[in-house]
Amino acid sequence: MRGKTWSKAIVLIAAGSLLAALLDGCSSGTLKTADGRDAIARDKGDITVKSENGEMKIKTNEKDGTVEFKGSDGEGGTVKIQTGTSELPEDFPKEAAIPDGAQIVNTMKTSTTDGEGYIVIFNVKQSAKEVGDFYRKTFKEQGFELSEFSEDSNITLMGGNDTHSFLVGIAKNEEDKDGSTVTLTYGTK
C-alpha cells in the first residue's frame, strides 16, 4: 500500500506540473471535460484539478518559489507535497542529520496517511567518503540497519528500522571538485 501512495504522489506531481505549464500565463480560467464538467480551474497562482478520485490543489508562492500539492491518495487519505525551498521543514526529523556547513539546494516534504517523507538535496565541502562516514556513524548510532553500494566516488547508503527509512546518495560535486552533492531521502511511519 505504501508504494501505491508514493506512486500516486509522483503521478500527481507530474500531472500538476504539466497542467501548470499548460495554464501558464492565464490569471484565471477553467478547462472542462468533454461532458462539460470542470476539470481544471486556475485562480491566479492556484490550480485545482478535479477527477473521479477527488481533487488536487496546486498552490504556488511566487515570493519564495515554493509549490504545494494537496489531494486525495485515491484510498481515502490525503497526500500533501511541498517543494521548492532551500530551507529544512520545521518538523524535519533530527534523526536525519545534515552535516554542518551544508548548503541546501532544495527540499521536498510529503505527508500521507502512512507517514511523512523528506527529500533534501545539499552540497557540502566534504568528500563523498567523509559524508559517507558521517551517515554510517549517525545511522549506526541510532541502531538503524544499513546497506551500502559504492562505485567510483559515488556512495549509496540505505536502511532504517521499524519506523524510519532512509536512502542517501552521495556524489562528487561537479562545480566544487573537493565537495559532494548529497540527496537524502528520509521517511517516517
UniProtKB/TrEMBL annotation:
<keyword id="KW-0732">Signal</keyword>
<feature type="signal peptide">
    <location>
        <begin position="1"/>
        <end position="20"/>
    </location>
</feature>
<protein>
    <recommendedName>
        <fullName>Lipoprotein</fullName>
    </recommendedName>
</protein>
